[in-house]
Specification:
The structure is a homotetramer of 386-residue chains. Chain A has 386 residues and is an alpha/beta fold. Chain A has helices at 14-27, 66-75, 84-97, 112-127, 154-162, 170-180, 197-206, 219-232, 248-254, 257-275, 321-342, 366-381; strands spanning 4-9, 54-60, 98-100, 132-137, 184-187, 209-212, 236-246, 283-287, 294-304, 310-320, 346-347. Chain A is built from twelve helices and eleven strands. Chain A is globular. At the A-B interface, α1, α8, β10, α11 and α12 of A face α1, α8, β10, α11 and α12 of B.
Chain lengths: 386, 386, 386, 386
């Protein structure tokens, strides 16, 4: 049976740690598959890697041991305490496969080519033990970044590097390394990652698949179910207010307005598309330390009905971001692993179901995304790699 | 241009009055088409009756003049005051076409055949001035009613009538009359209406189309958008609590537990189907006089995610039932009118989009219902009556 | 230092178990005093029993060991897991002091005098080791019960018992025993308990204090803070809808409409008093098994302002009934213990702060209740038993 | 009978217009006194001006006729349409008493003394027809403003004006004029107004009463009822998130972060005081044009109970700011008018009930403020001007 490697960028973060613990628990049949989309009966799982045939490794700039991170998640009510003891050994095994990430504020000039080469070596070493590798970026959200003309093509990027420039955002250096090492790639954050022309060209040239960006886990998920309801019922949405409160590492990152703007841009993008017109309304992401990994979202949708009647829908979402996202990350790795196996390349638009800002498609409606995903899974099931 | 007649059962109720006022306002271009599904660009409106080619009549047991009912709706914040003056004449015209309904508590034995024949005469008189008629039941919800063996076939029904029995619920007598008069039929309430074997057989024999039942206007609409979200994301819904508060005529009717049970049964039916398993949770419809025609619904959905994480979604819906339902009633009349024209007969399952308990289909998911509706509209557009 | 005994009716229930665990944790300084009103700086705690000078015993009809009940509460997210090990011995000690309660469905005729005498023996045995005892009823809510003329006086009660009748509700048999044994009494449920004339007379005669009834822990607490706001601002509350969802033992009891009616009557009683007029609106208590000991309450308050403007306040309360109530139970035992010590007798109206239906007072407003409580605590602090 | 003049700063704004219409409606007995605190039976209204003995005038920089503003408020669902016709003449009378306010961006140097003198002349002219005047600032919120050493005393202010400086915020120029003209003063906005040392000294010297600042009408009102509940129950509030959405003129002003910061500072100030410690949590005021004069506030309060249990209270407030505030403005004018009559001077701390940031008192708890207010009303009732 073929073995799949998942390589996390941000392997010691809440999400990656939860996914790693969860994968171990699934492999050991300690938990059921609630939340795992690839276990849905309407999705054809033929050829997807079994949980006990998936191996985890990754990069991180932090060095808190994974076991300790898991304990913190238990304290924060994210991971059940009962999983720690049976999975301790597995976490130790993953620990040994983790490698240092790119130092955020390096002294002196940054040599992105050298950085990328080091990352590629890490990936190749990891890949030696498995049949294929999917790199999944779950690290902290970066501020918006314009890589400019230097990233317009592979050639331009090489030239920039030759000239000692460092045009890429860190997430894109990781994405470059993933492609250079022959891996599939998933951008689960709103960071640029693979979404610059040079890297897109590289993926095309290497025949590698990728998916992104920004996991659709909570409030935006609800939006993608509700907005089509208003649209097909010809109800006129006048304002849509979105409040997101969260603590934890993600909340702290997003307390930085620059990083938050990446996120709110991603959250906003789909709404106007689904409603067919721009809609006013504030969108906040606020850091409330007390909430930890638990997110509360409150949305108020003001809409007009027939004869101008003013009506309102409000919803409150109380969810745990890490456990919402963790199974999706495993799903994506399995699906992109399958895409690698059957030779799909480029942006996998059929995986839009998982993302706030799906690459290369304007389809944000959840039901339509689901149909595209299940149809794609059936097509992949029929194929074998030449 | 062909003319369509809409015949309301319950023509003086909040909903029919709002629909009548709204139709007049649309015909006179005093309001826009917000809330009118048949105006959606994805739906092929070829052949649908123009608003100024639609004529309204109806039955009602009440005798409050329509103009006075409209004034009450203005007072209750349902209909804009500015519409009354320009539509006064039109309301007077409709007033003259209204006929007495079936007296609810007749003294002595009920002669349903005679009742039906009287209703048929009313309908034939109305039909003389238009090309086709759709009867729409928007009267008060009846308690559950078992018509039994007497309604198993047209023959059994005739025999029961011959024997002096009165097996049908009043809503079904109206439905019988509609079919006997060659009309299309829409059951917009949870009352039995056309949904008894004898009447289904009659519709089949006469080649007449019908649709139902129970308009999906508010909380159940939201459910049909949200439940598939949980299902496709493999999230495990553990309980779904539904609270409905409303005043007005509908609220007063539903304060009667027997009538309410028809409604909650309808509201419940789809949820379990969409989630794939039964879900616990109370469902209340409460009469709060103070709310008038305005409904507040509050739902709490408790669901488990990955690793057994307990999460919650709550929503609050504040809508005006009459203005939510009125455009749908007009939509349904136009669509069933079109079905009559192109020769469709039997239960129109493609109109499930509009109903809490769609006849002859288990499809409750809003997005799939929308696709079925738009596809059907395209098919109808291509056809001409032989 | 004087020792206080708390005797729980329903000693193995969620609330008593949480209170017992909590008391142990307070005595061992394993937790802080959050939620403990008697620790508030504005309340004079002079003379209140120290936590490590309080001893717990009680009656219960169930026989699940206390340690096992505590484990269940850990599983239900009510009690922190970390408390179990350090308190195991203490729970064993309490276990040995628990005695069987009154069997609910005794075969043959009930001899309430014999029942009461047995309970009195249990109480006297317990009282031997402490300076004074407060009996606290935290058992399941009983349906409304009319003890009738047989309970109009002690003499009538004795005569009824002589005649072989059993006029008292079980909660009142416990209350009788408490008074007969010279204990203070707290009715923390809406059951009749001490609130029948014969028992009130007995308490008066014995010079014993009591307090009740029905602990004000969640939604009603919020009401008693909000209703005065509307009243003093001259805003006209038109309807107040109250939805209570809970699982757990209490929820199961209240799924019985008879028991629930005791509760909703208690919840309703204060609202009209605070607003100065009756207010419409449904009040539901629904059993949702999935929620366990966690309660969700949703209230919608519709009010009119100046010029008839229609406005709305809604609130959602998500709390754990057992941990909300447990510290109040300890507070009440300490306060009634102090009342015993300083010779207060009869209904302690100054403890209204703790109750949904405070005995012998119509004061439901939280702030005024707080002022009465703190003033009383100061008065008690100044006194020594003659 | 003595006549009271109300002079509005911002006389053409939503609030002043609503108050003016409302006063007319009260005087003509077209509406009841819902929302009028001074009509509460617990408040002693002896000596308060009758509604038909109150005359309105005011300053405004805008020149939209009052009748037109009233029509806009009818369109925005703030004022009932039925009031316009009967009050048209009264609005015309008020219109004739309105005078131009201080131009916001005057060309050339600002001469605040000359400005103030002009305002004083307007006030004196108005005062000629009534017995006493209360100036009420209901104009747009100003950004925080530090008047500095120039406003430390009357002498310093005079010196600064002599030197050609203009140290005061516009709201303080109005307040200066009010005092110089012998009027009482109410600061209903968070603007500085009378709250600078020089003006306080002036009021003291002139023996004039004033009250402020920032009307407590909605979300903060609810806070002042709820925060004491948490405090007296010894529940530990960990975070309190406050979201305020509103359109209309006030919303547009507060869309400016500088102005909003005045407001959020006022809203925040009381919470920490009531809870006894600082509490984290974002506080937003967002402009949502679609909402018009209607405000939606959503608050989430996260609190810990006994044994560290994490619990939550959320509330949603949907109110109309103008009709909430209008009766309070009339109340304040009547009360400060009475204070003038009986010779009270300085900051009226007993009116804290009405304000987010009551001057010269740290009492933010609604119930305690109410007790102070009613006690003061009784004291004033007993007095006659020497």
């Amino acid at each position: 049976m073929s073995r799949l490697g998942i390589w996390f960028i941000g392997a010691r973060g809440s999400l990656a740690t939860t996914a790693t613990v969860g994968l171990g628990a699934l492999a050991a049949r300690l938990v059921d598959t609630t939340g795992c989309v690839t276990e849905h009966p309407d999705l054809d799982a033929t050829g997807l890697a079994a949980y006990d045939a998936i191996v985890v490794g990754g990069h991180d700039v932090a060095d808190t041991p994974l076991v300790k991170r898991a304990e913190q998640l238990v304290a924060g009510d994210v991971v059940p305490a009962a999983l720690l003891a049976p999975l301790a050994e597995e976490l130790e095994r993953v620990e040994r496969r983790l490698r240092p990430g790119l130092a955020p504020n390096a002294d002196g000039p940054v040599d992105q080519r050298a950085d990328a080469e080091r990352l590629v070596r890490d990936l190749r070493e990891f890949a030696a033990d498995v049949d294929r590798v999917v790199v999944v970026d779950v690290s902290s959200t970066e501020p918006p970044h314009d890589a400019g003309a230097d990233a317009e093509s592979v050639a331009a990027l090489e030239a920039a590097w030759d000239a000692g420039r460092a045009p890429l955002a860190p997430s894109s250096v990781y994405a470059y390394a993933a492609l250079a090492a022959g891996c599939g790639y998933v951008g689960f954050t709103p960071s640029p990652g693979v979404d610059v022309p040079a890297l897109r060209e590289l993926a095309e040239r290497e025949g590698l698949p990728y998916a992104g960006c920004d996991g659709k886990t909570g409030e935006t998920l609800v939006k993608s179910a509700l907005a089509p309801m208003f649209h097909t019922r010809a109800l006129a949405v006048r304002s849509w207010t979105s409040i997101n409160l969260l603590g934890g590492g993600d909340g702290a990152t997003l307390a930085d307005p620059a990083a938050a703007s990446s996120k709110t841009r991603a959250k906003r993008s789909g709404l106007d598309a689904m409603l067919g017109h721009p809609v006013e309304g504030p969108m906040h992401i606020d850091y409330v330390e007390d909430l930890g990994d638990w997110k509360t979202a409150w949305d108020q949708i003001r809409f007009d009905g027939f004869l101008g009647t003013r009506m309102t829908l409000q919803f409150t979402w109380q969810g745990c971001d890490s456990t919402l996202a963790a199974p999706l990350v495993l799903d994506l790795a399995r699906l992109v692993g399958r895409a690698l196996e059957v030779g799909e390349s480029g942006a996998l638009t059929e995986l839009a179901f998982f993302f706030k800002s799906p690459l290369d498609t304007e389809e944000h409606r959840l039901a339509q995304q689901w149909q595209a995903l299940t149809a794609w899974s059936a097509r992949c099931a029929d194929r074998v790699r030449p």
